[in-house]
Design brief:
Distance between the termini: 43 Å
Largest sheet: 4 strands, mixed
Number of strands: 10
Radius of gyration: 21 Å
Mean pLDDT: 84
CATH class of the domain at 13-66 and 78-180 and 253-275: Alpha Beta
Number of helices: 9
Strand order of the largest sheet: 8-1-10-9
Structural class: alpha+beta
Low-confidence stretches: 1-44
Amino acid sequence: MTTDPENPTPPDPTRREFVKKAATTALGAAALGSSAEAKEGTPVRFYPEEHWRDRMTAPDDGKRYGWLVDTRRCFGCHGCEVACKAENDVPLGNYIRQTIYHDYEKSGGGLARVMIPMACQHCEDAPCIKACPCGALHKAAGGTVQVSYEACSGHATCVDACPYGAIYIDKVANQAVKCHNCTHRLEVGMEPACVTTCPSEALYFGDLNDPDSEISRRKKLLEAEDKISRLRPEKGTEPRTWFAVDSDHPMEVWENKIPREGESYSPEAYSVYQWKNDRHEPGPWHREESE
């Protein structure tokens, strides 16, 4: 565009405000980081409660969104991953959702393979929100844990805090990226893209406050049969994702394959050598504690 030197085009006010806000956020993050480290008894990756209390509170909309993953039905087609990538423009090498494979020997003899569709667990007590220095992570509709991209500075402490490896840092935008329950689809009455794409009906999403919702009814049946579990309950995050399991698909045989704090979903998970390993090997986005 040609600019008249006597009547220069003023800067875009939206962009100007964004840069101004980003600079303010960065300064605030540095100050909060120092106070968090100095506060005795507070984990370094968590900030004082007054910094995240409001963001941990979901809007009073009467909804409580949750997930049910039926590992007995998933056959590893990766349709959910492809749908997620297409819906959210996820670049190659990164994942909001990933299907983990694991081969194991059954207790009664013989080999078996289990496929586990994984994504953000949308925790009640979300550690990523407590760890975020710039206030970008927060609870949105139905308790969905979301990232405000306007506020995110790519600090990556959320990656360090997530016990499920469900967040990655977009190195181009320098921002945290994770599942947001396809909020843009929910707002127009549609389900998340992965749910509508799954051909084996292994993914269920809905309002847990509605006893007549599909997820509520299936969850109740699985609880009656004692065939339901949550991932790493010892972390105390109260995840809103449940897994249907049974004697042929026990969680203990595949739990170690799921990324942990400081890690993100990795292309290495697709290596055939990983399928038979007893534990997850850190992928290329593993962040060492020393960093």
